[in-house]
Write a structure and sequence with these properties.
The chain has about 400 residues and is of the alpha+beta class. It has a domain of about 230 residues. About 30% of the residues lie in helices and about 15% in strands. Helix 11 packs parallel to helix 13. It is globular.
Amino acid sequence: MQPDTTLRPAPLTSAATPPHERAKPLAKGSTYPAKDLCSQCGLCDSRWVAYVKDSCAFLHQRFDAMETAAHGRSRDLENEDELYFGVQQRMLTARLQQPIAGAQWTGIVSRIGVRALETGLVDAVLCVGQSEEDRFTPVPRLARTPEEVLSARVNKPTLSPNLEVLEQLPGSGIKRLLAIGVGCQIQALRAVQPTLPLDELFVLGLPCVDNVSRQGLQTFLESTVSSPNTVVHYEFMQDFRIHFRHSDGREETVPFFGLDTPKLKNVFAPSCLSCFDYTNAGADLVVGYMGASFGRQWLTVRNPKGQQLLDLVEAELDTAPVTSAGQRQAAVQQGIEAYDKAVKLPLWVANLIGFFVERFGPKGLEYGRFSIDSHFTRNALWLRRNHPDKVEEHIPAFARRIISRYRLPD
C-alpha cells in the first residue's frame, strides 16, 4: 500500500476554529522559528504562522509530498532531466515577440500576470513591487490591475516577505489567485494551500539562488560594478558573465570568475546557502533562463495548470526546443575547490577564462546542470560545516544523488 503523501495543514486544535483564524502574525523583528536559516518568506508575518512548523522549507523538507500534491506524482530520479529540473510535462525556450519595455528580459512573467487578469483567470496576482525610496527594497502586493503587475516588473534579488500578503486575503473578495514566487516561498505556500480562502491557486515560479539582504546586496554591488547606485537590475547569465543595466541605459558585464570571492563568500543569505530548490519544484509553471541559450528564457510546464498559464501567452512567444551541449563536470569540480579556497583572480585572467568557457563550456540544459551542480555541492558543504545536525534531513534525495558525483573537501 502506497503511503499517503497528501499535504495537509497541522491538525486543528479546535473543531470550531482553525489555527490560522486564532493565530496572530509574529511581531516584526521577532526571532522566527527557522532562526538564522529563515528566508523571510513572509509566512510568519501572517496568521498562517500557525502552520510554520510543518510548512517552513528550512524546518521541514517534504519535496515528494509537495510534488505529489501539486503535480500528481514526484519526480523520476532515474530520468536525468527530472532529477535536475523536477516534474515536467514540457520544457521549451521562448521570448516575447514584442518585449515589454523595462522588463528584465522580454517580460514573459509580467505578460502572464497581465493576461491572467485580463482573461479573468484570476482576481489578483501576488507579485513584488519596490519601495518608492529604493529600487531593490521589495514590497509584496496583491495586484488587481495590469498596470499594477507591470509596475512590479524586474527582479528584486533580495529576501522578500511575499507571503505576508496572505493576511490580506480574508474579506478581500479574491477567490482565484496567481502567485509568483521563488522556491522557499512556494514550498510554504503549497503547505498551507488547503487552508487558504481560495477557490483556485495558480503558481508561477522563478528559479532562484543566492539572494541577499539589502545590506548584502550593497556589498555585492560595491565590490563588483563600476556605479553601484545606478544599477537597475542584474543577472548571472549563460555566457558566464553578470549583466548589469544602469539607469542611463548603459549595460555592463563582469565575468563570474572575476568576482571578489573572499569578500563575497559570506554575503549570501544562510537560507540560500542551505536551499536545494533552485528550480522551484512546487510551481505549476517555471520561467527563468538557466536551461536556455543566451537571450532566451527557459520554461518548464509541470502540470495542466502550468500549461493553462502558458496558453495565456504562447501565441505571443517565439518558441524553440531546449538544447544541450558541452561538458560541465570538470568545471564544477574545479569551481568547488576554487570557491572553497576563496580564490580571487586578476581581471585579465578572469576575462580569458570567461572567453574560453563561453565558447567551449556547457550550454542550454547542460549549463543549467552546471549551475545546479555548482550550487548544490557548495550548499551541501556549507550545511556540513555550519549545521551538521541538519544534513541528513535537509538535503533531499535528488540533491544527494547529484552531489554524490563530486568530491567535496572536508
